Amino acid sequence: MAWIALFFAGLLEIVWAFAMKQSHGFSRLVPSLITLGAMVASFGLLSLAMRSLPLGTAYMIWTGIGALGAFAVGAAFLGEAVSPMRLVAAGLILTGLVMMKLTAQS
Q: Where are the transmembrane segments (predicted)?
């Protein structure tokens, strides 16, 4: 259950990061509200996952899902650059996430 909560917490991190970008510095109401709601839900699920997962594992995977997802959303929907070096960097983050999951105790 902790891993499922952590996965959805990471997905919600992507949502709030994208919504924050769309809020234009919290100057647009709907994206600002989505940002705040997704943040609260993401933190809530992260705290639930941390009840049984080690801090370092949970936090790294949460931020990694958010980082990779934000990179993908930025490239797919915001026209952000996708260069070979950025893809290598994303691959290294993904490798770190897989290694952290494989070595996790819970």
A: 33-50, 57-79, 85-104
Distance CA 81, CA 17 (A): 17
CB 67 within 8 A of CB 14: no
- The answer to whether 72 touches 81, Cβ cutoff 8 Å, is no
Give me the number of domains the chain comprises: 1
> What's this model's pTM, rounded to 2 decimal places?
0.89
Of the candidates 61, 63, 80, 82, which has an alpha carbon nearest to the alpha carbon of residue 17?
A: 63
For 61-91, the pLDDT digits (tens) are: 999 999 999 999 999 999 999 999 999 999 9
Q: Which residues contact 101 (CB under 8 A, 6 or more apart)?
A: 57, 61
